[in-house]
Write a structure and sequence with these properties.
Number of helices: 8
Structural class: alpha+beta
Helix content: 25-40%
Largest sheet: 6 strands, mixed
Radius of gyration: 34 Å
Distance between the termini: 110 Å
Oligomer: single chain
Shape: elongated
Order of helices and strands: HHEEEEEEEHEEEHHEEEEEEEHHHE
Strand content: 25-35%
Number of strands: 18
Length: 410
């Protein structure tokens, strides 16, 4: 058989190999199918007896073994990027491997590059030494495969990002529906909330419910976690809370039931800090339970008396049964202000990594005892922004201010 005939046959086989792999790519075959077609194409149409293919994993920063055929020695599943060094001028590849591994059965390596970045390494051995192997073609064929695998990975990443975007959009819509559509602003109660989620979906929750003309329930909570899981937990939490409020249960029963519901739903893996208060216009009674939350600030006597509301229990959802529970209360309250907030407020940082802190917040309240909720929020967030000096928020921030006037006529 002449040399020209051998060259012709080799080119014919190479063309078949190229057609088979490109057809599989065009038909959008799965990664495993593409790898198998590539392997058998190399074995059937090219002068290859044994081969290994390691493909670079960008996220993990290592070369991952994807094909192994007719290599009996012990091989690593992954080769760290730092352990692979190629000298292009000398045509040598250096691998820093443990002694237990051996590549002695494959004596040829074919690197696959894209813009100086090594995407893969093909190790192989030929069937017939005399027939030789067109390394340029083998490299090109491997490049086609690896680029197809990269494109599939990129498509998966895009689909995952789109899925996450839609998930966050749904979670954000769910969260918006949980919050009150509007807050009262009348002669008996003026309410104002400022809410800054750290991301599209926050973990903070606030609510204000008036089941009758004499009763007002209000709460603020901080749900552990972010995204859809936190949004779903918050949704279940709000549904349970509102159901319990409609049943006329007392605060102690409500908090105990909420804790049981959260624990059953999350097996103690997620928790909620929570403050629940109830005010009765008819007798001027305030009752509350603080479940591990930042204590709200009660301001009475035109700011002459300031008190933090700490009585309650531990965080909800961490224990099957709450280890202790105390209901706090104040009597004879008619004209007073309450400021409820989450830890994103006091943990606001400035460029020197200093927290705004609870004491600064209390001092601002002392300095502005007669401000309406609207005025209070406008002035306070001006001060907080000045303190942070442009440092971005690292957590959700909620401030709910309630100004009661129990002496006002119905």
């Amino acid at each position: 058989m002449t040399t020209e005939t051998l060259k012709y046959q080799r080119k014919e086989l190479e063309l078949k190999a190229l057609l088979e792999i490109t057809q599989a790519i065009n038909e959008n075959k799965t990664e495993n199918v593409l790898l198998n077609i590539f392997k058998f194409t190399c074995l059937v149409h090219l002068n290859i007896k044994s081969l290994l293919l390691y493909v670079f994993n960008e996220q993990e920063q290592f070369f991952e073994r994807r094909i192994s055929h007719q290599v009996k020695g012990k091989l690593p599943e992954h080769i760290p990027k730092a352990d692979v060094q190629e000298n292009k001028h000398l045509g040598k590849l250096s691998l820093s491997l443990a002694q237990e591994y051996s590549f002695s059965e494959v004596n040829i390596y074919v690197p696959v590059y894209h813009k100086e970045k090594m995407l893969a390494i093909l190790f192989l051995n030929t069937k017939d030494k005399e027939k030789g192997l067109d390394l340029d073609f083998t490299q090109a064929l491997t490049n086609i495969l690896v680029v197809a695998l990269e494109n599939k990975r990129f498509s998966r990443k895009q689909l995952e990002q789109e899925r996450l975007r839609k998930e966050m959009e749904i979670a954000s819509n769910v969260q918006r529906m949980l919050f009150p559509a509007s807050l009262p602003s009348n002669h008996r109660l003026k309410a104002k909330v400022t809410y800054f989620p750290h991301s599209t979906v926050g973990g903070d929750y606030y609510d204000l419910i008036q089941p009758s003309k004499n009763d007002v329930y209000f709460c603020v909570a901080d749900v552990s976690g972010k995204g859809m899981p936190a949004s779903l937990l918050m949704s279940n939490f709000q549904a349970a809370l509102r159901t319990l409020l409609r049943s006329g249960s007392d605060l102690v029963t409500i908090v105990q039931q909420l804790n049981s519901t959260i624990f059953e739903n999350t097996n103690g893996e997620r928790f909620i800090t929570f403050f629940l208060g109830h005010y009765s216009y008819s007798d001027g009674r305030l009752r509350y339970i603080n479940a591990g939350h930042n204590p709200p600030v009660l301001c009475t006597e035109q700011g002459q008396q300031i008190e933090v509301l700490e009585a309650g229990t531990t965080i909800l959802g961490a224990f099957e049964s709450l280890p202790f529970l105390e209901q706090g209360g104040r009597n004879g309250l008619h004209s007073f202000v309450l400021h409820l907030y989450t830890d994103g407020l006091t943990e606001t940082l400035n460029p020197r990594e200093e927290e705004y802190g609870e004491e600064n917040f209390l001092q601002y309240i002392r300095n502005n005892p007669c401000a309406t909720p609207e005025q209070f929020h406008a002035g306070f967030f001006t001060e907080l922004d000045a303190f942070s000096e442009g440092v971005g928020r690292r957590d959700d921030l909620t401030l709910l201010s309630l100004q009661f006037n129990g002496d006002a006529a119905l």
